[in-house]
Design brief:
The chain is an alpha/beta fold. The protein contains 7 helices and 7 strands, in the order αβαβαβαβαβαβαβ.
Length: 210
């Protein structure tokens, strides 16, 4: 079956994407809801966590994506593969991630990934960038003590901007990385590496005393 065709970029501030999502119910979407949870924000077609879900059946994987057609396609593929540890949700994470995660118990998240988000290069479009203080707060509140947030991009100015936002959250401790710690790479990461371009990566760990 041909890939679903979608716009590469969508404006997260347009009226259609201001729909508040229904809070995800882990018991309804995962066959074993108590497994460790990996949240992939801005998952696009979701192939990264699909392959991760196949490789790590002892984990649950939740993908969040703003383009609804991609979410529908990804959930179809997950169902066809019989993966009870994988689910995708349609959500504008920049505005409504806290709403989506409202039903997730505090401390349920063990791993969060944000990989190659849209940089929105033009200065007047900076307010459309996905990572902001509200998104970070929503994630950290659900992150288990010792849980990790992995962020990577090939855009240097965007890395600096995102990393500073994470550094401002005193519940997190930063760890630098030279290589991707996962056994799977996104399509974007492979394309960037094929061109021998730089990738900027970091990991934040939630304070175990939180």
């Amino acid at each position: 079956m041909a890939r679903v065709r979608v716009h590469q970029h969508v404006n997260p501030l347009s009226p259609y994407y201001r729909q508040e999502p229904v809070a995800v119910d882990l018991a309804a979407v995962f066959s074993v809801p108590t497994r460790p949870l990996h949240l992939d924000i801005g998952c696009a077609r979701g192939r990264f966590i699909l392959r991760m879900a196949e490789a790590k059946p002892e984990w649950n994987f939740l993908g969040v994506e703003i383009r609804e057609a991609l979410v529908e396609e990804a959930n179809r593929l997950a169902s066809e593969a019989g993966l009870g540890n994988l689910h995708y949700a349609f959500c504008n994470a920049m505005l409504f991630l806290a709403n989506l995660l409202a039903g997730v118990p505090d401390g349920a998240l063990q791993m969060v990934t944000i990989q190659f988000p849209d940089p929105w290069f033009k200065k007047r479009h900076a307010k459309r960038r996905m990572v902001n203080a509200e998104l970070i707060d929503a994630v950290v509140k659900k992150l288990a003590p010792g849980g990790r947030i992995f962020v990577q991009t090939d855009i240097e100015f965007l890395a600096e901007e995102m990393f500073e936002l994470f550094r401002a959250d005193k519940r997190l401790a930063e760890r630098s990385l030279s290589e991707n710690p996962f056994l799977v790479k996104t399509e974007r990461e492979k394309a960037v590496e094929d061109k021998s371009l730089s990738v900027y990566r970091a990991v934040w760990i939630k304070d175990i005393n939180e």
